[in-house]
Amino acid sequence: MGQAISGVNNFSDLIDLAGERLGGKALLASDEYFAGKENLLKPGRAIWIADKFTEFGKWMDGWESRRKRVPGHDWCIIALGRSGIIRGVNVDTGHFKGNQPETCTVEAVCMDGQPSVDRLVGPDVPWVTVVDRATLNPDSEHLLAANAAAAGKRFTHVRLNIFPDGGVARLRVHGEVLPDWNSLRGKQIDLAAAENAGLVIACNDMHFGSRHNLIMPGRSLNMGDGWETRRKRGLKGGEFDWCIVQLGHRGVVRKVEVDTNHFKGNFPESCEIEVCDAPGAADLEQASWRAFLPRTKLRASEQHFYEKELQNVGQPCTHARLKIFPDGGVSRLRLWGEIV
């Protein structure tokens, strides 16, 4: 396993294990008459289009079941994009006002090997309640911490139960990715990648784009799918914006990619990277940061690869700090190397 998570404010700062971009899939719902289950995992908050209707009723950007006229409750089974430890969930009832469920619970199970839907709904599946029953308010995000039953356990699937029926816009399942590290030993991997348990734990500014986008799979979809800071005014010499990435596992970085894809008039003038070896550190300000990529010119909407330019290669590290001068947007940061 990698080093302990540090520097996060609460579980919502952790990776969304169920996220569509990480490969999460809504597999089956008891009812999706008004709005499809796939909407639950879309990136971003739900949108509202006042005059949009379908043959079934009002169009909603979420999952919505019909009004239940028989005993029971509705549910949706989701395959996590990456297996891991669940720390909490965000059940978002955005734009559901009067048609949100009264309450919800979340169950989870660990079943490797892509089990079939028939298998997942079978009577012998050992579902564990990881989020206790909670009241849901209209048009609100609900940050619900995982209970003791989830502590330290690896899960691959979750089941959102809503009582008795209604609509949920988004479900986020925040936690820590748990890769099979033994299978990755000796291979060059992206140590910063979300799918390899990387986490962007802090930044000084993310006015236009979230820091978490930096380590998402694939190239960015658009300018909003990157990390972008506000414009600096009244600049003094040497000012910069920054973010800190906690590597998924302590390792040796040998190749760096800085991608400014889609940032054409707002890419940084240059960037610089420092690294430190501080497993389990509670205060990275006290860590011994060392130069890794010296300040280097960046270009618009381009992948930049660095190997020969890197300094102190071969020394293990646990964290990397990306500095951009003076501000702007970077879509992806890749730190290729081997775990140690």
SSE order and pairing:
Blueprint: E1 15-16, E2 25-29, E3 53-54, E4 57-58, E5 63-64, E6 74-92, E7 103-109, H1 117-120, E8 128-135, E9 141-145, E10 155-163, E11 167-168, E12 170-177, H2 181-184, E13 189-190, E14 199-203, E15 227-228, E16 241-259, E17 270-276, E18 290-297, E19 303-306, E20 317-325, E21 329-330, E22 332-339
Antiparallel strand pairs: 1-12, 2-6, 3-4, 5-11, 6-9, 6-10, 6-12, 7-8, 7-10, 13-22, 14-16, 15-21, 16-19, 16-20, 16-22, 17-18, 17-20
Descriptive overview:
The protein has helices spanning 117-120, 181-184; strands at residues 15-16, 25-29, 53-54, 57-58, 63-64, 74-92, 103-109, 128-135, 141-145, 155-163, 167-168, 170-177, 189-190, 199-203, 227-228, 241-259, 270-276, 290-297, 303-306, 317-325, 329-330, 332-339. The chain is an all-beta fold and 340 residues long. It folds into 2 domains: 11-177, Jelly Rolls (Sandwich); 182-339, Jelly Rolls (Sandwich), CATH 2.60.120.260. Residues 1-7 have low confidence and may be disordered.
Which properties best describe this structure?
disordered N terminus, about 350 residues, 8-stranded antiparallel β-sheet, Jelly Rolls, 2 domains, mainly beta
Produce a short descriptive summary.
The chain has 340 residues and is an all-beta fold.
CATH class of the largest domain: Mainly Beta
What is CATH's topology name of the largest domain?
Jelly Rolls
Task: Please give the share of residues in helix.
Answer: under 10%
Distance between the termini: 11 Å
